Amino acid sequence: MSVIVASERVDGSLRETLASLRRQEEAPSFEVLVASSRPPAAEGRAAEGPASGVRWVEVAERNPSVRRNRAARAALGGALAFLDDDAEAEGRWLADGVAALARCDLVGGPDPGPPQAPYGERIADLLLATPLIGSGVPAHGHRPRSGTIRAPHDIALCNLFVRRDVFERLGGFDERLGYVGEDTDFVARAMGAGYRAELDARVRVRHRRRAFPRPYLAQRWRYRVKTGRLLIERPGLYAGGRVAAFLGAAFLLSSGLALFGAPFFGVAAVAYAAATWSLSFPIWRRDFALFPAVPPAFALHHATYLAGLLVGMARGVVSLSAR
Description:
Elements (H helix, E strand, L loop, with lengths): L1 E5 L7 H9 L8 E6 L5 H4 L8 E5 L5 H11 L4 E5 L3 E3 L3 H9 L4 E3 L10 H11 L17 E2 L10 E5 H6 L12 H11 L4 E3 L5 E3 L6 H20 L6 H21 L1 H18 L1 H4 L9 H29 L1
Parallel strand pairs: 1-2, 1-4, 2-3, 6-9
Antiparallel strand pairs: 4-8, 5-10, 6-8, 7-9
Helix pairs in contact: 8-12, 9-10, 10-12
C-alpha cells in the first residue's frame, strides 16, 4: 500500500497528517510518499509504528496533480491512497480502505472537520456538510450514504483509494487542470471506463477547513470560478441539474425582488433563514454556538457561489470563442 501526500505545509500540519498514519490500527504493510518542494520536517521523517518510513519525492512545481502523479510513479504499492496534508486519518482508515478496494476499483470516504476546531472552521464545516444547500459533495457530509456513487464529484481527493493498475490505465490525474477539478475529472474518467467507484462511510479522515469568512470564501470563489469554466469547457463533468436548480433559484429570487421590492425581500429573508436553520439542524444541534451564524454565513456562501459560477462560465465562453 502506498499513501501519497502532496504537500505545501511540510513544516506545519503535515506533521499531524504523518502522525495519524503512524497510529493506524490493523493496517497492511504500507509506505508514505510526500511530494513537495522541500523535505518534510525531521519529526515527520521519524519511522514509528507500522509505517515502513516516509519517502520524499521532490517536485518543485506546485501543481498538485503533477506532484501526485510523480509520487505515484515512484510508489511501490499495488494500491494508492491519497491524503491531504491538512487531514488526519482515523484509526482504521487504511484497513477499511484496503477492504473496500476488494469489492470496487476506487473508493472515497467522508472528510468532516475536526470537532474541536476553531469557530471559523466549524462554520465552514457546517456550510460544506449541510445537504442540498451546502457543497453538494456527499463526502463532505458527516453521515453520508455508503454505496456506489451517483456523480463523479461525490467523493474528494483528500480521501481517495484506487487500485494501482486502474490509476495507470487512466493515465493518472490530468495535469492540465491544475488545482480544483482534477479529482472530479479522474473519477469521471474511471466511471466512464466502467470502473466501480464507491463512497464508504467507514473510510474516514478529519479534514481541516479554511476559516470562515475570508479564507473560506476566497477558496470557494476559486472553486466556483473553476467549476463555471469547466461547465462550459468540459460539459458533463459536473451535475448540470444541480447547477441549473441553483441558478434558477437565484433568478426567481432576483425577479421577485425586482417585481415586489421590500415586502418580498422580508418574506424571502425569513423563509431563507428558516430553510438554512432547518437543513443544517443535525450539525448545529451538536454545536449550538453555530446557530446565530447560520443564515448570514449561508447568504455569503451562496452569493460567492453564484458570482464565482457566473464569472467562470463567462471565462469559459471567452476561452472557447478564442480557440
